[in-house]
Amino acid sequence: MAAAPPSSLSYRTTGSTCLHPLSELLGIPLDQVNFVACQLFALLAAFWFRIYLSPGKTSPDVRHAFATIFGIYFVIFCFGWYSVHLFVLVLMCYGIMVTASVSNIHRPLMIVTQKIIALAFQVHDGLGRRAEDLSVEQHRLAVKVKPSFLEYLSYLLNFMSVIAGPCNNFKDYVDFIEGRHIHMKLLEVNWKQKGFHSLPEPSPMGAVIHKLCMTLVSLLLFLTLTTTFPVTCLVDDWFVHKANFLTRLCYLYVVMQASKPKYYFAWTLADAVNNAAGFGFSGVDKNGNFSWDLLSNLNIWKIETATSFKMYLENWNIQTATWLKRVCYERVPWYPTMLTFILSALWHGVYPGYYFTFLTGTLVTIAARTMRNNYRHYFLSSKALKLVYDVVTWAVTQLAVSYTVAPFVMLAVEPTISLYKSMYFYLHIISLLIILFLPIKPQAHIQKQPQTLNSVNEKKKD
Protein backbone atom coordinates (compact mmCIF):
# COMPACT_ATOMS: atom_id res chain seq x y z
CA MET A 1 0.00 0.00 0.00
CA ALA A 2 2.88 2.34 0.67
CA ALA A 3 4.57 4.22 -2.15
CA ALA A 4 8.00 4.13 -0.65
CA PRO A 5 10.06 2.78 2.20
CA PRO A 6 9.37 4.10 5.70
CA SER A 7 9.28 7.86 5.89
CA SER A 8 12.39 8.18 8.00
CA LEU A 9 14.47 7.09 5.01
CA SER A 10 13.84 10.54 3.56
CA TYR A 11 15.28 13.93 4.50
CA ARG A 12 13.14 14.20 7.62
CA THR A 13 13.69 12.20 10.78
CA THR A 14 11.08 10.46 12.85
CA GLY A 15 10.58 9.94 16.53
CA SER A 16 12.25 6.55 16.47
CA THR A 17 15.93 6.94 17.33
CA CYS A 18 18.76 4.47 17.27
CA LEU A 19 18.26 3.13 20.80
CA HIS A 20 18.06 -0.54 19.91
CA PRO A 21 21.45 -2.35 19.77
CA LEU A 22 20.82 -3.49 16.19
CA SER A 23 19.91 0.06 15.18
CA GLU A 24 23.11 1.35 16.72
CA LEU A 25 25.14 -1.36 15.00
CA LEU A 26 23.70 -0.56 11.55
CA GLY A 27 23.46 3.18 12.15
CA ILE A 28 19.87 3.40 10.93
CA PRO A 29 16.60 4.17 12.80
CA LEU A 30 14.61 1.43 14.48
CA ASP A 31 11.58 1.83 12.19
CA GLN A 32 13.78 0.93 9.22
CA VAL A 33 15.02 -2.15 11.05
CA ASN A 34 11.39 -3.13 11.74
CA PHE A 35 10.52 -2.61 8.09
CA VAL A 36 13.32 -4.87 6.85
CA ALA A 37 12.56 -7.49 9.52
CA CYS A 38 8.89 -7.58 8.51
CA GLN A 39 9.69 -7.90 4.82
CA LEU A 40 12.20 -10.71 5.39
CA PHE A 41 9.71 -12.54 7.61
CA ALA A 42 7.06 -11.96 4.94
CA LEU A 43 9.41 -13.52 2.39
CA LEU A 44 9.66 -16.71 4.49
CA ALA A 45 5.90 -16.69 5.07
CA ALA A 46 5.35 -16.31 1.32
CA PHE A 47 7.38 -19.44 0.55
CA TRP A 48 5.41 -21.35 3.20
CA PHE A 49 2.14 -19.95 1.86
CA ARG A 50 2.88 -21.10 -1.70
CA ILE A 51 3.98 -24.59 -0.64
CA TYR A 52 1.62 -25.52 2.20
CA LEU A 53 -1.44 -23.38 1.45
CA SER A 54 -1.52 -23.78 -2.32
CA PRO A 55 -4.96 -23.61 -3.99
CA GLY A 56 -4.91 -27.38 -4.49
CA LYS A 57 -4.43 -28.05 -0.76
CA THR A 58 -6.80 -25.61 0.92
CA SER A 59 -9.79 -23.37 0.27
CA PRO A 60 -9.74 -19.72 -0.85
CA ASP A 61 -11.23 -18.69 2.52
CA VAL A 62 -8.29 -20.20 4.40
CA ARG A 63 -5.82 -18.48 2.08
CA HIS A 64 -7.66 -15.16 2.50
CA ALA A 65 -7.72 -15.57 6.30
CA PHE A 66 -4.03 -16.47 6.58
CA ALA A 67 -2.95 -13.57 4.36
CA THR A 68 -5.11 -11.15 6.36
CA ILE A 69 -4.07 -12.28 9.83
CA PHE A 70 -0.37 -12.14 9.04
CA GLY A 71 -0.81 -8.78 7.33
CA ILE A 72 -2.52 -7.32 10.40
CA TYR A 73 0.30 -8.65 12.59
CA PHE A 74 2.96 -7.01 10.39
CA VAL A 75 1.13 -3.68 10.44
CA ILE A 76 0.86 -3.72 14.23
CA PHE A 77 4.52 -4.74 14.59
CA CYS A 78 5.74 -1.94 12.29
CA PHE A 79 3.41 0.89 13.28
CA GLY A 80 2.07 0.07 16.74
CA TRP A 81 -0.91 2.20 17.75
CA TYR A 82 -0.74 4.08 14.44
CA SER A 83 -2.11 0.94 12.81
CA VAL A 84 -5.50 1.68 14.39
CA HIS A 85 -5.85 4.56 11.93
CA LEU A 86 -5.42 2.18 9.01
CA PHE A 87 -7.87 -0.37 10.38
CA VAL A 88 -10.54 2.27 11.04
CA LEU A 89 -10.24 3.61 7.50
CA VAL A 90 -10.43 0.14 5.99
CA LEU A 91 -13.56 -0.74 7.97
CA MET A 92 -15.26 2.59 7.28
CA CYS A 93 -14.59 2.29 3.57
CA TYR A 94 -16.03 -1.21 3.47
CA GLY A 95 -19.22 0.18 5.05
CA ILE A 96 -19.34 2.84 2.35
CA MET A 97 -18.74 0.30 -0.41
CA VAL A 98 -21.60 -2.01 0.61
CA THR A 99 -24.10 0.82 1.23
CA ALA A 100 -23.28 3.44 -1.44
CA SER A 101 -25.00 3.36 -4.82
CA VAL A 102 -22.90 1.85 -7.61
CA SER A 103 -23.06 5.07 -9.59
CA ASN A 104 -21.34 7.00 -6.77
CA ILE A 105 -19.25 4.33 -5.08
CA HIS A 106 -15.95 5.66 -6.46
CA ARG A 107 -16.44 9.22 -5.15
CA PRO A 108 -16.45 9.02 -1.29
CA LEU A 109 -13.48 6.65 -1.26
CA MET A 110 -11.01 9.07 -2.83
CA ILE A 111 -9.69 10.08 0.60
CA VAL A 112 -7.95 6.75 1.20
CA THR A 113 -5.19 4.86 -0.54
CA GLN A 114 -4.63 3.18 -3.84
CA LYS A 115 -6.24 -0.20 -3.44
CA ILE A 116 -9.54 1.13 -2.08
CA ILE A 117 -9.71 3.79 -4.78
CA ALA A 118 -8.88 1.27 -7.50
CA LEU A 119 -11.44 -1.21 -6.15
CA ALA A 120 -14.07 1.54 -5.93
CA PHE A 121 -13.62 2.45 -9.60
CA GLN A 122 -13.55 -1.21 -10.64
CA VAL A 123 -16.81 -1.92 -8.80
CA HIS A 124 -18.26 1.22 -10.38
CA ASP A 125 -17.17 0.01 -13.83
CA GLY A 126 -18.58 -3.46 -13.24
CA LEU A 127 -21.94 -2.51 -11.71
CA GLY A 128 -22.57 1.13 -12.59
CA ARG A 129 -21.56 1.50 -16.25
CA ARG A 130 -22.52 -0.15 -19.52
CA ALA A 131 -19.96 -2.63 -20.81
CA GLU A 132 -19.80 -0.91 -24.20
CA ASP A 133 -18.74 2.37 -22.54
CA LEU A 134 -15.68 0.80 -20.90
CA SER A 135 -12.21 0.65 -22.37
CA VAL A 136 -10.76 -2.79 -23.00
CA GLU A 137 -8.65 -2.50 -19.84
CA GLN A 138 -11.55 -1.24 -17.72
CA HIS A 139 -13.69 -4.12 -18.93
CA ARG A 140 -10.98 -6.65 -18.02
CA LEU A 141 -10.62 -5.27 -14.49
CA ALA A 142 -14.29 -4.53 -13.81
CA VAL A 143 -15.64 -6.15 -10.61
CA LYS A 144 -19.22 -7.30 -11.18
CA VAL A 145 -19.96 -8.60 -7.68
CA LYS A 146 -19.15 -6.66 -4.53
CA PRO A 147 -16.43 -8.49 -2.59
CA SER A 148 -17.18 -10.29 0.65
CA PHE A 149 -15.81 -8.85 3.89
CA LEU A 150 -13.07 -11.52 4.02
CA GLU A 151 -12.05 -10.92 0.39
CA TYR A 152 -11.96 -7.18 1.05
CA LEU A 153 -9.79 -7.49 4.16
CA SER A 154 -7.48 -9.98 2.49
CA TYR A 155 -7.01 -7.76 -0.55
CA LEU A 156 -6.18 -4.70 1.55
CA LEU A 157 -4.30 -6.20 4.50
CA ASN A 158 -2.56 -9.30 3.16
CA PHE A 159 0.96 -9.78 4.53
CA MET A 160 2.56 -9.74 1.07
CA SER A 161 1.81 -6.10 0.27
CA VAL A 162 0.49 -4.36 3.39
CA ILE A 163 3.88 -2.91 4.35
CA ALA A 164 5.50 -1.87 1.05
CA GLY A 165 2.98 -2.68 -1.67
CA PRO A 166 2.86 -2.81 -4.56
CA CYS A 167 -0.67 -1.90 -5.56
CA ASN A 168 -2.44 -4.64 -7.51
CA ASN A 169 -5.88 -5.22 -8.97
CA PHE A 170 -8.64 -6.96 -7.05
CA LYS A 171 -9.43 -9.45 -9.83
CA ASP A 172 -5.77 -10.44 -10.18
CA TYR A 173 -5.51 -10.95 -6.42
CA VAL A 174 -8.66 -13.07 -6.20
CA ASP A 175 -7.48 -15.15 -9.17
CA PHE A 176 -4.23 -15.74 -7.28
CA ILE A 177 -6.00 -16.76 -4.06
CA GLU A 178 -8.38 -19.09 -5.91
CA GLY A 179 -5.62 -20.68 -7.98
CA ARG A 180 -6.50 -19.25 -11.43
CA HIS A 181 -3.80 -16.59 -11.62
CA ILE A 182 -1.07 -18.54 -13.44
CA HIS A 183 -3.44 -20.83 -15.32
CA MET A 184 -5.25 -17.93 -17.01
CA LYS A 185 -1.98 -16.34 -18.15
CA LEU A 186 -0.75 -19.65 -19.57
CA LEU A 187 -3.95 -20.13 -21.58
CA GLU A 188 -2.92 -17.14 -23.69
CA VAL A 189 -0.18 -19.29 -25.27
CA ASN A 190 -0.69 -22.26 -27.63
CA TRP A 191 1.43 -24.83 -25.80
CA LYS A 192 0.70 -27.67 -28.23
CA GLN A 193 2.63 -25.81 -30.92
CA LYS A 194 5.56 -25.67 -28.50
CA GLY A 195 5.48 -29.43 -27.97
CA PHE A 196 3.70 -29.43 -24.58
CA HIS A 197 0.85 -31.88 -23.96
CA SER A 198 -0.33 -30.02 -20.85
CA LEU A 199 0.14 -26.62 -19.28
CA PRO A 200 3.59 -26.14 -17.71
CA GLU A 201 3.99 -25.21 -14.05
CA PRO A 202 6.26 -22.15 -13.90
CA SER A 203 8.25 -21.73 -10.69
CA PRO A 204 8.99 -18.26 -9.29
CA MET A 205 12.29 -19.34 -7.72
CA GLY A 206 14.49 -17.97 -10.49
CA ALA A 207 12.74 -14.59 -10.38
CA VAL A 208 12.83 -14.50 -6.57
CA ILE A 209 16.56 -15.27 -6.41
CA HIS A 210 17.31 -12.66 -9.08
CA LYS A 211 15.31 -10.00 -7.22
CA LEU A 212 16.88 -10.90 -3.87
CA CYS A 213 20.32 -10.41 -5.41
CA MET A 214 19.21 -6.98 -6.65
CA THR A 215 17.87 -6.27 -3.18
CA LEU A 216 21.21 -7.16 -1.58
CA VAL A 217 23.14 -4.92 -3.99
CA SER A 218 20.68 -2.08 -3.33
CA LEU A 219 21.09 -2.51 0.42
CA LEU A 220 24.87 -2.36 0.15
CA LEU A 221 24.61 0.79 -1.99
CA PHE A 222 22.23 2.32 0.54
CA LEU A 223 24.62 1.62 3.42
CA THR A 224 27.54 3.16 1.50
CA LEU A 225 26.53 5.70 -1.15
CA THR A 226 23.44 7.05 0.58
CA THR A 227 25.31 7.71 3.81
CA THR A 228 28.29 9.20 1.93
CA PHE A 229 26.15 11.59 -0.14
CA PRO A 230 23.13 12.47 2.05
CA VAL A 231 20.57 14.89 0.71
CA THR A 232 21.47 17.32 3.50
CA CYS A 233 24.63 18.10 1.49
CA LEU A 234 22.43 20.15 -0.84
CA VAL A 235 21.91 22.82 1.83
CA ASP A 236 25.53 22.98 3.01
CA ASP A 237 27.24 26.37 2.86
CA TRP A 238 29.82 24.99 0.42
CA PHE A 239 27.16 23.83 -2.06
CA VAL A 240 24.93 26.90 -1.81
CA HIS A 241 27.55 29.67 -1.73
CA LYS A 242 30.96 28.39 -2.85
CA ALA A 243 30.56 25.73 -5.53
CA ASN A 244 30.20 26.91 -9.15
CA PHE A 245 27.08 26.13 -11.16
CA LEU A 246 28.54 23.17 -13.07
CA THR A 247 29.77 21.61 -9.81
CA ARG A 248 26.33 22.06 -8.25
CA LEU A 249 24.71 20.48 -11.29
CA CYS A 250 26.94 17.39 -11.11
CA TYR A 251 26.78 17.12 -7.33
CA LEU A 252 22.99 17.31 -7.36
CA TYR A 253 22.95 14.40 -9.83
CA VAL A 254 25.28 12.34 -7.60
CA VAL A 255 23.23 13.01 -4.46
CA MET A 256 19.98 12.11 -6.19
CA GLN A 257 21.56 8.93 -7.56
CA ALA A 258 22.64 8.05 -4.02
CA SER A 259 19.08 8.49 -2.76
CA LYS A 260 17.68 5.81 -5.11
CA PRO A 261 18.98 2.55 -3.54
CA LYS A 262 16.50 2.69 -0.65
CA TYR A 263 13.63 2.66 -3.15
CA TYR A 264 15.27 -0.03 -5.26
CA PHE A 265 15.69 -2.12 -2.11
CA ALA A 266 12.16 -1.73 -0.75
CA TRP A 267 10.28 -2.17 -4.01
CA THR A 268 12.37 -5.08 -5.30
CA LEU A 269 12.07 -6.92 -1.96
CA ALA A 270 8.29 -6.34 -1.96
CA ASP A 271 8.11 -7.75 -5.50
CA ALA A 272 10.15 -10.81 -4.42
CA VAL A 273 7.82 -11.43 -1.46
CA ASN A 274 4.78 -11.55 -3.75
CA ASN A 275 6.57 -13.78 -6.25
CA ALA A 276 7.66 -16.16 -3.49
CA ALA A 277 3.99 -16.62 -2.60
CA GLY A 278 3.21 -17.39 -6.27
CA PHE A 279 1.70 -13.99 -7.11
CA GLY A 280 2.99 -11.80 -9.93
CA PHE A 281 3.14 -14.13 -12.94
CA SER A 282 2.62 -12.06 -16.09
CA GLY A 283 2.84 -14.70 -18.81
CA VAL A 284 5.45 -15.60 -21.40
CA ASP A 285 7.78 -13.03 -22.94
CA LYS A 286 8.76 -12.80 -26.62
CA ASN A 287 11.65 -15.19 -26.04
CA GLY A 288 9.39 -17.86 -24.57
CA ASN A 289 10.57 -17.32 -20.97
CA PHE A 290 8.22 -17.15 -18.00
CA SER A 291 7.82 -13.59 -16.68
CA TRP A 292 7.15 -12.63 -13.07
CA ASP A 293 6.87 -8.86 -13.47
CA LEU A 294 3.12 -8.29 -13.11
CA LEU A 295 3.73 -6.46 -9.82
CA SER A 296 7.20 -5.06 -10.52
CA ASN A 297 7.46 -1.45 -9.42
CA LEU A 298 10.52 -0.39 -11.35
CA ASN A 299 12.85 -1.25 -14.21
CA ILE A 300 16.28 -0.15 -13.04
CA TRP A 301 17.99 -0.46 -16.44
CA LYS A 302 15.36 1.64 -18.21
CA ILE A 303 15.43 4.22 -15.40
CA GLU A 304 19.19 4.68 -15.60
CA THR A 305 19.20 4.77 -19.42
CA ALA A 306 16.02 6.82 -19.92
CA THR A 307 16.25 9.32 -22.76
CA SER A 308 13.04 11.16 -21.93
CA PHE A 309 11.17 12.35 -18.85
CA LYS A 310 8.23 10.18 -19.93
CA MET A 311 10.36 7.04 -20.21
CA TYR A 312 11.82 7.68 -16.76
CA LEU A 313 8.40 8.11 -15.13
CA GLU A 314 6.99 5.02 -16.87
CA ASN A 315 9.66 2.84 -15.26
CA TRP A 316 9.74 4.41 -11.79
CA ASN A 317 7.06 3.37 -9.27
CA ILE A 318 5.31 1.56 -12.11
CA GLN A 319 2.28 0.35 -10.18
CA THR A 320 1.52 3.81 -8.82
CA ALA A 321 1.91 5.31 -12.30
CA THR A 322 -0.48 2.67 -13.65
CA TRP A 323 -2.94 3.40 -10.84
CA LEU A 324 -2.82 7.14 -11.54
CA LYS A 325 -3.41 6.47 -15.22
CA ARG A 326 -6.42 4.23 -14.56
CA VAL A 327 -8.16 6.31 -11.90
CA CYS A 328 -7.32 9.81 -13.15
CA TYR A 329 -5.57 10.27 -16.51
CA GLU A 330 -7.99 8.10 -18.50
CA ARG A 331 -11.09 9.43 -16.72
CA VAL A 332 -10.76 13.21 -16.42
CA PRO A 333 -12.11 15.25 -19.37
CA TRP A 334 -9.59 18.12 -19.18
CA TYR A 335 -5.88 18.71 -18.43
CA PRO A 336 -5.10 15.07 -17.64
CA THR A 337 -1.36 15.58 -17.17
CA MET A 338 -1.69 18.42 -14.65
CA LEU A 339 -4.54 16.79 -12.73
CA THR A 340 -2.68 13.49 -12.56
CA PHE A 341 0.39 15.18 -11.08
CA ILE A 342 -1.81 17.00 -8.54
CA LEU A 343 -3.52 13.76 -7.52
CA SER A 344 -0.13 12.11 -7.13
CA ALA A 345 1.01 14.91 -4.82
CA LEU A 346 -2.18 14.72 -2.75
CA TRP A 347 -1.85 10.95 -2.45
CA HIS A 348 1.76 11.18 -1.26
CA GLY A 349 0.94 13.53 1.60
CA VAL A 350 1.07 17.11 2.80
CA TYR A 351 4.78 17.87 2.71
CA PRO A 352 5.46 20.97 0.58
CA GLY A 353 8.34 19.24 -1.20
CA TYR A 354 5.90 16.86 -2.86
CA TYR A 355 4.04 19.77 -4.45
CA PHE A 356 7.25 21.44 -5.61
CA THR A 357 8.22 18.18 -7.31
CA PHE A 358 4.91 17.44 -8.98
CA LEU A 359 4.24 21.00 -10.14
CA THR A 360 7.77 21.22 -11.52
CA GLY A 361 7.24 17.79 -13.07
CA THR A 362 4.13 19.03 -14.89
CA LEU A 363 6.08 21.93 -16.35
CA VAL A 364 9.03 19.76 -17.39
CA THR A 365 6.78 17.07 -18.91
CA ILE A 366 5.00 19.58 -21.14
CA ALA A 367 8.29 21.23 -22.13
CA ALA A 368 9.95 17.89 -22.89
CA ARG A 369 6.98 16.78 -25.01
CA THR A 370 7.10 20.07 -26.91
CA MET A 371 10.83 19.75 -27.63
CA ARG A 372 10.41 16.15 -28.74
CA ASN A 373 7.53 16.98 -31.09
CA ASN A 374 9.43 19.88 -32.64
CA TYR A 375 12.95 18.50 -33.06
CA ARG A 376 13.21 14.71 -32.71
CA HIS A 377 12.39 13.99 -36.36
CA TYR A 378 15.50 15.93 -37.47
CA PHE A 379 17.73 13.33 -35.81
CA LEU A 380 16.20 10.18 -37.28
CA SER A 381 17.82 10.38 -40.72
CA SER A 382 21.00 8.52 -39.71
CA LYS A 383 22.29 6.27 -36.94
CA ALA A 384 25.01 8.78 -36.03
CA LEU A 385 22.52 11.60 -35.52
CA LYS A 386 20.19 9.30 -33.59
CA LEU A 387 23.09 8.30 -31.31
CA VAL A 388 23.93 11.95 -30.66
CA TYR A 389 20.27 12.63 -29.93
CA ASP A 390 20.08 9.70 -27.49
CA VAL A 391 23.24 10.71 -25.62
CA VAL A 392 22.17 14.34 -25.28
CA THR A 393 18.59 13.50 -24.26
CA TRP A 394 19.90 10.94 -21.73
CA ALA A 395 22.09 13.56 -20.05
CA VAL A 396 19.32 16.18 -20.11
CA THR A 397 16.77 13.70 -18.75
CA GLN A 398 18.96 12.58 -15.84
CA LEU A 399 19.80 16.18 -14.85
CA ALA A 400 16.17 17.26 -15.21
CA VAL A 401 14.95 14.40 -13.03
CA SER A 402 17.56 15.21 -10.35
CA TYR A 403 16.45 18.84 -10.30
CA THR A 404 12.76 17.94 -10.24
CA VAL A 405 12.77 15.26 -7.54
CA ALA A 406 15.14 16.97 -5.08
CA PRO A 407 12.26 18.66 -3.18
CA PHE A 408 10.56 15.26 -2.88
CA VAL A 409 13.34 14.00 -0.61
CA MET A 410 14.02 17.36 1.06
CA LEU A 411 10.32 17.79 1.92
CA ALA A 412 10.43 21.25 3.50
CA VAL A 413 10.06 24.66 1.84
CA GLU A 414 13.25 26.29 3.13
CA PRO A 415 15.81 23.76 1.82
CA THR A 416 13.91 23.49 -1.47
CA ILE A 417 13.99 27.24 -2.08
CA SER A 418 17.64 27.35 -1.01
CA LEU A 419 18.49 24.64 -3.53
CA TYR A 420 16.55 26.16 -6.40
CA LYS A 421 17.98 29.62 -5.74
CA SER A 422 21.48 28.17 -5.84
CA MET A 423 20.56 26.59 -9.21
CA TYR A 424 19.06 29.90 -10.43
CA PHE A 425 15.73 28.13 -11.09
CA TYR A 426 17.31 27.23 -14.42
CA LEU A 427 15.01 24.33 -15.34
CA HIS A 428 11.86 26.28 -14.47
CA ILE A 429 13.00 29.17 -16.68
CA ILE A 430 14.04 26.95 -19.61
CA SER A 431 10.78 24.96 -19.44
CA LEU A 432 8.67 28.12 -19.41
CA LEU A 433 10.57 29.57 -22.37
CA ILE A 434 10.05 26.36 -24.36
CA ILE A 435 6.32 26.30 -23.61
CA LEU A 436 5.91 30.00 -24.40
CA PHE A 437 7.93 30.23 -27.63
CA LEU A 438 7.79 26.83 -29.30
CA PRO A 439 4.65 25.69 -31.13
CA ILE A 440 2.58 23.11 -29.27
CA LYS A 441 0.29 20.84 -31.25
CA PRO A 442 -3.38 21.14 -30.18
CA GLN A 443 -3.44 17.39 -29.39
CA ALA A 444 -1.03 17.99 -26.52
CA HIS A 445 -3.85 19.64 -24.57
CA ILE A 446 -6.43 17.01 -25.31
CA GLN A 447 -6.64 13.71 -23.53
CA LYS A 448 -6.32 10.69 -25.76
CA GLN A 449 -9.28 8.56 -24.73
CA PRO A 450 -8.73 4.82 -24.38
CA GLN A 451 -10.44 2.52 -26.84
CA THR A 452 -13.87 1.32 -25.77
CA LEU A 453 -15.31 -2.07 -26.60
CA ASN A 454 -17.59 -0.39 -29.15
CA SER A 455 -14.65 1.17 -31.00
CA VAL A 456 -12.76 -2.13 -30.99
CA ASN A 457 -15.79 -3.99 -32.37
CA GLU A 458 -16.30 -1.35 -35.08
CA LYS A 459 -12.66 -1.74 -36.19
CA LYS A 460 -13.11 -5.50 -36.40
CA LYS A 461 -16.16 -5.01 -38.62
CA ASP A 462 -14.20 -2.69 -40.91
Describe the structure.
The protein is mainly α and 462 residues long. It contains 22 helices and two strands. A two-stranded antiparallel ribbon has the order 1-2. Helix 5 crosses helix 16 (318-329), helix 12 (245-258) crosses helix 19 (383-410) and helix 18 crosses helix 21. It is globular and about 65 Å long. 37% of the residues are buried.
Give the topology.
Blueprint: H1 21-26, H2 30-52, H3 60-79, H4 83-99, H5 114-128, H6 136-141, H7 149-157, H8 170-177, H9 181-186, H10 205-228, H11 237-242, H12 245-258, H13 261-276, E1 283-284, E2 290-291, H14 300-304, H15 309-314, H16 318-329, H17 336-348, H18 352-375, H19 383-410, H20 413-422, H21 426-437, H22 453-461
Antiparallel strand pairs: 1-2
Main features:
462 residues; mainly alpha; two-stranded antiparallel ribbon; 22 helices; 2 strands; 63% helix; disordered N terminus; transferase; MBOAT_fam; transmembrane
